[in-house]
Model the fold of this input.
Amino acid sequence: MMMAMGSNCGSVYTSKACNALLKELQQIWTEIGESEADKDRMLVELEQECLDIYRRKVDEAANAKALLHQSIAAREAEVAMLMATLGEINVTFPVLADKKAKSLKGQLASVSPLVEELTRKKDERMKQFADIKSQIDKITSEISGYGHIVSSVSALNLEEHDLSLRKLMEYQSNLRTLQKEKSERLQKVLDCVNEVHTLSTVLGLDFAKTVNDVHPSLHASSAEHVTNISDSTLEGLDQAILKLKTQRKFRFQKLKDVAGSLFDLWNLMDTPKEDRSYFARITSVLGFSESEIVQPGALSMEIIDQVSAEVERLTKLKATRLKELVLMKRAELEYVCSKIHIQADPSTDADKTNALVDSGLVDPSELLANIEAQISKAKEEALARKELLDKISRWLYACDEEKWLEDYNKDDNRYSAGRGAHINLKRAERARITVNKIPAMVDNLISKTLMWEDEKKMLFLYDGVRLVSILEDYKQARRRKEEEKKQARDQKKLHDMLLAEKESIYGSKPSPRRSSSFRNVNGHRGYGNGNGSVTPSPRRNSSGGINSELLTPRSYSGHQNGYFKETRRLSTAPLNFVAIPKEDTISFSSVCGSEPESPPQR
Done:
């Protein structure tokens, strides 16, 4: 309103001034004496000049207005373009929303800051794009294998029309994808390099030379060298690994073959452990699979050559020691057979093997393998015979206890108070319990042996004699021994009765000193006639010529040489006898009248 009042005041003042000047001009014209026509003409010219001035000013103002419209339109177009480029089309600016309420210069003044702000945002956005694009190009060049980075300025200028956040996110996503691929490729390259290093170390090869042949950057230690991750590098590493693995497989197989020969020679020649320990580290790798071998130099040619040299050396010694080894294995076979009481194969005894080796008719290796097979077979048979052999051992132990008890009962001083007498008494009690079990042991052993023979479809031989035959002979000998003992007791009763009759007639009684001499040297009680003479008790010889000896396996090995092809004695223990009952061992001097009869042991 104040501006309107100022404008009106100015217009009134201008009109008054013009009127005053017009009056002054007319007065001057009157004084000059101008005619009315000239005055009218000059007034018309004056009005025309005023109109021209107004027209010019209007034109200038119109041009200025047009320029302002053009500037505003250009700025608005620039704003629209920037907003479209930045992807902010849907954003509404307050300046553009109320532009009708402002003058043209006001509109122009309000649009300019917006243009500057959008321009600044565009520059920042372009910088972000340029940074991301440069990283993308760098990674792309690394993946492609090119050493230089392709300039991205021209490509970026072509994309200035789209600097939106969506496009920026696409670039960022592409960059992350490339970064992930680069990381995966770099990890794969490092894994391949590590595998090459491991394989080269195991094979004893130069790692640096191997990877340099693929790409020099794989072994560069300086910071300016970037590890190449291109497809060609990965392919080269894969080929190098394949080549190293093929070589590792070849060398591992070669080492296995050579080591196998070495083990065979060791086993063949019974090489001591201290001589094998030198190659323990080398041969220990054979316990692993091919892929598990990581020891440095484990499959180097130097190692293989060392093993090959040892094989060659032992091969030369093989011929000279093979005969000795055959004899050693034969001795081992005889030892194994002796432990389980079977007869070794006579075709490979020492004399025959020496003759065969010296004649050259038989390969010593084949002969040695044959003996080793016999040893294995003997060990298998030992497992099959173990149960019966254990029972035989217990039976023989009982027989030994029986013999000890018999010797103990012959000792007149067994009840003395000497040192160790109580220990012997306890042992004698245990021995009597054990001896009483012998018949049951024998019967059980016969039953078990027959079951074994039925199951195996073969006879159970003990040192060349059928065990059942030995046991049956033992039972018969034991039965005869019992009968002899019974006859001896009956004879003693008769003799005691005769002595009692003589005493009643003659009134004499034998002295203790004289009566104690009635025991003969073989442990049987002598029978006198009153004057000191000894009457031997009748004895019935066994059918085998062993008299009253019980036929245990030890008896067979000592006397029945016809059953064996070897003359080796299995045991040096004395022959076994049935224990004499305790009452029979009482000295003759302590007997008054007849002794009670002891029941025979069954």
Q: What stands out?
A: Residues 389-590 form one domain. Confidence is low (pLDDT under 50) at residues 1-7, 148-154, 511-548, 558-602.
